[in-house]
Task: structure prediction
Amino acid sequence: MKSDKITKYTLFIASLVILFVSGGMVFSLIGGSIPAFKEFGLQFIFSTEWNPTEDREAYGALPFITGTMFTSILALIICLPLAFATALFIAEYFKRSSLASILSSMVDLLAGIPSIVYGLWGFYTLRPLMIELGWSAQGYGILTSGIILAIMIIPYATSLSAEIISMVPNELKEAAYSLGATRMEVIFNVILPNARSGIIASFILAFGRALGETMAVTMLIGNANVIPKGISGVGNTMASVIANQFGEADGLKLSSLIAIGLLLFLITGIVNAIGKLIIKKLS
Amino acid sequence: MNAQAIQAPTISTSNIDSRKLKNKAFRILVIVLSALTISPIALILGKLIVKGIRQINLDFFYQNAPNTLEAMTAISNGEIIPGGIANGITGTIFLVILASLMAIPIGIIIGIFLYENQEKRYANLIRNLSDILQGVPSIVLGLIAYLWVVKNITNGFSALAGSVALAIMMLPLIIRATEETMKMIPGTLKEAGLALGVPYYKVILRVLIPSGFSGLSTGILLSISRVLGETAPLMLTTLGSPVINWDVSAPTSAVPLLIWEFYNDPNMVDLIWSSSLFLMGFVLTLNIISKRISAKRKVI
Amino acid sequence: MENIDRIKDPILSIKDLSIAYNKGAKYAVKDVNVEVKKNAITAIMGPSGCGKSTLLRAINRMHELYPSIETKGNIFLHDEDIMKMSTIQLRRKIGMVFQRPNPFPTMSIYDNVIAGYKLNGIRISKSERDNIVEQSLRNVALWDEVKDSLFKKGTFLSGGQQQRLCIARALAFQPEVILLDEPTSALDPIATSRVEDLLVELKKKYTIVLVTHNMSQAARISDYSMFMYLGDLVEYGKTKMMFTNPRDSKTEEYLTGKFG
Result:
């Protein structure tokens, strides 16, 4: 039938949108960063300079790359015990109970809170707390951002981990129980080894989320274009420097921001691809 | 067999007691950490409600955001800051409608394409690219929309640019929701239609989409609730506007953009709570509706 | 129901045991009284849902893993009330083998056999460990088949070999009683007969309680048989007696294949 052919073509043509969007994205990011890379070469990635003064313009991405890595790794470390415990609550200790479903919808709610609201809460609640505890003079910095980021990525790590944990066959758990193991021993000797790669993948994907988060971090990291000095130091991430400096940017500075966008795109892409690959291997 | 027989092992009571204790302690730890995990929800909602509720009145929905001077006068007279966030609310609705017009039809069609071509290499490529798109940070999508639309189409900050960024965010979510939904529809339903000689596009429109309706609408609502609170890409594309705007090629405000403006203006900072409360309410309502729909679906 | 001479010196005595699911809404086992003979194979038979698995699991309290279960009555191992024992001690003394072979897929064959020691934190020397692994695998006639691949994962073994590995895992602990929950239902006939031969061999040293769906299996290898129906223990006695001359009409109907 002729109409069927037209339908097939329509479906196919729509799929080209994805090709164009993703291809165009890479093309435009590369195109936009060319002036910056022409001017600074690969040194752009390793330079710590950020000087917008006319005639002496120089830009480097290293402070922002390290800022992104520091905050995200810290977020991952904080998120790990929390997300793991929550996944165990949902998929093991209270499996299939109403308590578990309440908790898992609360975790979903956590994912629904907009980034800017997290930023406000971090600014008005967490930041004063950090000052009071004496962990940071101004309350800004890597630690504050890391904590907020951790809360934001918990839902991603939790929901996937819980799914993987609940898939560990009951027979294996029973085998361990029949040998006298306690529940905690079953968790560490049976559930964890069997769910290991899936849990790792879920944390990698959550890490990928943290890398690209913008608003909350922008409001809490202190916006200093330097390599952060330790956990309570201030800094800037790749995403936050784009958000902060974009308004007044043109020429070489705009190109440098786009180049940072390209690097961010590549890093998150690689991290996500690794996570997805592990998951694909599982199924 | 010359090896010696196995001695039955003994397990000491101290071993048992310490393991039981550890087991109990771990259980408590799991419960405490889980409670800690969700505590920010209560803390954040509580803060928003306590600090935001008194700003919310009818004006809040009807009037545009005040300017700094109006806010300053009100504060010095000890009054509640006048005005509302009507420009933000309409802006958010406008952006979401524009983004939905782009992302929903294309997303559903691509989802059906993937469902039809399950294991083909090209379809796998599209599926993987869509997955990659889903992981792209929203700020990067803001850059892209800036480069494509602001610089080349509308020659200035515009609602269209913002909605393109949001549409790219929604697209992968809708594609996935569509494909997953289609997979759950019994294949016999489709074959029954085709066997009757109904043209394929009619099978899609009259059989596949209606029977997957609840799944599709869940996916669409979730994707909308995901982009509603987006701020970063809009800062790079729609810029903001003090008045209500329905022109696709002009700058537009949005609720999250207003929150950002209020946050940065010491005179208006009191307005962040009511605006955030409103935004949260909006996002959560959509979330709950979509959950309801997907819960009902299980009945079929 | 008392159609059997009192078993002298029983290893297990079950007294007035009732087990209910859903907080007492549904009885899986009703008022069961039974004594199990040492160094014998006792088979529990009955149609699906008759409570035979629940009864078996109650003997090492595995049934407690599932919430909202109520247990009344007592089970004695020798003279000790198992309900008052720690489950750790109890399961050391009463081992279990399951319907489907379930070796730990992340552990080697060697580690699977020794898993009970590792899980329980029992520290023993390497030579002791080697001895336990070898003896346990010899006991299930698996040693010659796997001695060259002890450090490979157990999942490459055939179903029957995996099940014998699981029996070896239970034996490594030197339990007094081994509970088997339909251990051959997932195996082919050849593997089944090997496991059956093994059980007959093992009863010299251990007491075996076996749930089975398969009447001819019970007839072939068991010394004593229970027949359960809807949670009741309908009949209990020497297997030969029960199969040749059942006292209860329900037992007769089941054994002649009228239902099940």
Q: What stands out?
A: Residues 39 and 248 of chain C are 27 Å apart (CA to CA). Chain C has a mean pLDDT of 92. The radius of gyration of chain C is 18 Å.
